[in-house]
Specification:
By secondary structure, the protein is an alpha/beta fold. Helix content is about 30%, strand content about 20%. It has a domain of about 120 residues: 2-Layer Sandwich (GMP Synthetase, Chain A, domain 3), CATH 3.30.300.30. It contains 22 helices and 30 strands. A hairpin with a 3-residue loop joins strand 28 and strand 29. The structure holds 5'-O-[(S)-butoxy(hydroxy)phosphoryl]adenosine (WT7).
């Protein structure tokens, strides 16, 4: 982003100048009722984090709270615990009969599963996984729809000390294959299919295709979700239900070292190879349970909490599975689309279950705005007392709409900034304490030290803009990239020296020290709250026989967020026709998944390149966003830009 763009964005954000102090009635009952916790945590952050770790159940206590700084920090040294035990066993005596998940299938089935029932199923499945050869330290791949068996599978792995690698069900076979191979998984857990917008998503079919290219896979566990007939490989495929029936309920939770790996989760970087983000047990669980309790003000006895993300992303790992279960709270788990069978599906769920807290993404909120207020208007949403947002900057208009039409004009809205890498929310309001400003994620969570630096690595101070940094480690932070420590150091700890973590986001600090996030500053796009690298989409495009060269950029739009625009040079003998356009879009969907499908494609004879042949994506971004072009003096083929600009003037968006 150029500094001019930064200013424009800030200007747009500041047009909504209203602020919202927490209502007294909220503060009075809040888990964190006043600001003293900030002072406490700033004065002695390690002691604050220690107090948060003490909320968990440890088999053996730690000797030291923390050792080391970025990039090599370790927390709760020699402490022993198990995540599955913390999410299940320790709640049994006090609240075994409490519902852990109200599950709702897209076609309409309902299943409420209590903590005791969840515990039993997890134990049985964990025991069965042992019989398939899963051991402490293994990585198990999971490719499931949003069904109860997904958290069950994750917790069963955690119980044995095996790490899970959950792959989002919307990813295609090749993406699954690469992730399985990167981690060397022996076992894959999948389903015959899932439901999305009335259609069956054929997960088993994709899994079969993927596994053809995965030499390490020995067993594929299959959950029967749809009951459709699927291909079955004798000796390799195993039925989930019969495994659970045979598994023993006596399956002790393995004591894990605080720093032992809990899971790996892949996210896009600036190269074609996804990064396996490694999270560990003690610090991660401390961070997610603390933030979940305090930012969402969780009252486990009375709240019905709904994080409407997919568990396949980090939001679901931290705020559908580990945070809520560690806190013993009741959650909604919904399988399908928000507009199936009608555009009021979410609101009817909120009414029926009396949901009190809703956590979703700006892209969903903007879609609801587009659909109109009549859909939420049909339902009683008065049970809601708190709303959350995550995934990308929320435009003030969407923030205000969310509070007004979903929150009944009364609920606080917490905008939460974090990443797959931080594991837990790092910047957010505390709803009983913070005066909210629509569009700002407000302040670092207690114990988190964030700042905004300029290129030279100096703090910009209040009123300045630059790059977001974290200057002190936090327990929930990832520890490395699986199998690639060098990439870990190069990606995150090179810009400002190794003591400073660089998340890749632009930010501004206002006069009150509030943080305003301004989007990614690298070649990573944020599409509907999901991270996709330009490089991955380009690789998928050039993989098609008709494509000679491709450059991909994210086009920012204040309401829509970011959409993918591809500039494609066809090979000799191919023309940039409408047919080719839709074929290329489908091709990307097939290789990576629908989320990566370019919204628009511009065919061009050449791409703007520097004299050394590097494609100037920055200029293409200017074109896509209809801006004045930046510096073009280093281009070897400047005239092509006029042609591209002309063709892009009427960029149309196929829906
Ligand atoms: C990137 C992380 C964290 C869960 C979902 C995405 C952007 C995330 C916000 C927010 C502005 C945000 C950042 C970040 N982002 N939340 N509240 N305001 N930007 O996880 O895929 O790891 O992506 O999403 O750019 O770096 P992720």
């Amino acid at each position: 982003m150029s500094s001019k763009d930064v200013e424009k964005t800030i200007e747009a954000l500041l047009q909504e100048r209203r602020t919202f102090a927490p209502p007294n009635s909220f503060s009075e009952q809040a888990n964190i009722p006043d600001a003293s916790v900030y002072e406490e945590a700033t004065r002695d952050p390690d002691t604050w984090w220690e107090s948060q770790a003490e909320r968990l159940d440890w088999f053996e206590k730690w000797d030291t709270v923390r050792e080391g700084e970025f990039p090599k920090h370790r927390w709760f040294i020699d402490g022993k615990l198990n995540a599955s035990h913390n999410c299940l066993d320790r709640h049994l005596s006090s609240s075994g009969d409490r519902v852990a998940y109200h599950w709702i299938g897209e076609p309409g089935e309902k299943r409420s599963i209590t903590y005791s029932e969840l515990h039993e199923e997890v134990c049985r499945f964990a025991d069965a996984l042992k019989s398939l050869g899963v051991r402490k330290g293994d990585v198990v791949s999971i490719y499931l729809p949003m069904i109860v068996e997904l958290p069950v599978a994750m917790l069963a792995c955690a119980r044995l000390g095996a790490a899970h690698s959950v792959v989002f069900g919307g990813f295609a076979a090749e993406a699954l294959r690469d992730r399985i191979n990167d981690a060397g998984c022996k076992v894959l857990i999948t389903a015959d299919g899932g439901y999305r917008r009335g259609q069956i998503v054929p997960l088993k079919e994709s899994a079969d295709t993927a596994v053809k290219g995965c030499p390490t896979i020995e067993k594929v566990v299959v959950v029967r979700r749809t009951g459709e007939n699927v291909n079955w490989v004798e000796g390799r495929d195993v039925d989930y239900r019969s495994l659970v029936q045979d598994g023993s309920v006596d399956c002790e939770a393995e004591p894990m070292d605080s720093e032992d790996m809990l899971f790996v989760l892949y996210t896009s970087g600036t190269t074609g190879k996804p990064k396996g983000i490694v999270h560990i047990t003690g610090g991660y669980l401390t961070g997610v349970s603390s933030t979940h309790r305090n930012i969402f003000d969780i009252k486990p006895d009375t709240d019905v909490y709904w994080c409407a993300a997919d568990i396949g992303w980090v939001t679901g790992h931290s705020y559908i599975v580990y945070g809520p279960l560690a806190n013993g709270c009741t959650s909604i788990l919904y399988e399908g689309a928000p507009d199936w069978p009608d555009k009021d599906r979410w609101w009817s769920i909120i009414e029926e279950y009396g949901v009190t807290i809703l956590y979703t993404a700006p892209t969903a909120i903007r879609t609801f705005m587009k659909w109109g207020t009549e859909h939420p208007g049909k339902h009683d949403l008065s049970s809601l007392r708190l709303l959350g947002s995550v995934g990308e900057p929320i435009n003030p208009e969407a923030w205000v709409w969310y509070q007004e039409f979903i929150g009944g004009g009364k609920t606080p809205v917490v905008d939460t900034w974090w990443q797959t890498e931080t594991g837990a929310i790092a910047i957010s309001a505390l709803p009983g304490v913070t005066t909210l400003k629509p569009g700002s994620a407000t302040k670092p969570y207690p114990g988190v030290f964030a700042d905004v630096f300029n290129d030279a690595g100096e703090p910009v101070g209040r009123g300045g803009g630059g790059y977001l940094v974290l200057t002190r480690p936090l327990p929930s932070m990832f520890r490395t990239i699986l199998g690639d420590e060098q990439r870990y150091l190069d990606t995150y700890f090179a810009k400002y020296g190794e003591k400073v973590y660089f998340p890749g986001d632009g930010a501004k600090l206002d006069e009150d020290g509030y943080f305003w996030l301004l989007g990614r500053v690298d070649d990573v796009m944020n599409v509907a709250g999901h991270r996709i690298s330009t490089y991955e989409v380009e690789s998928a495009l050039v993989d098609h026989p008709a494509v000679a060269e491709a450059a991909v950029v994210g086009r920012k739009h204040p309401q829509e967020g970011e959409t993918i625009v591809a500039f494609v040079t066809p090979r000799a003998g191919y023309d940039g026709t409408e047919e080719l356009l839709s074929e290329l879009r489908d091709h990307v969907a097939k290789v990576i998944g629908k989320i990566a499908r370019p919204r628009s494609i511009v065919f061009t004879d050449d791409l703007p390149k520097t004299r050394s042949g590097k494609i100037m994506r920055r200029l293409l971004r200017d074109v896509a966003e209809g801006r004045e072009l930046g510096d073009v003096t280093t281009l070897q083929n400047a005239p092509i830009l006029d042609e591209i600009r002309e063709k892009s003037a009427t960029l149309t968006d196929p829906e």
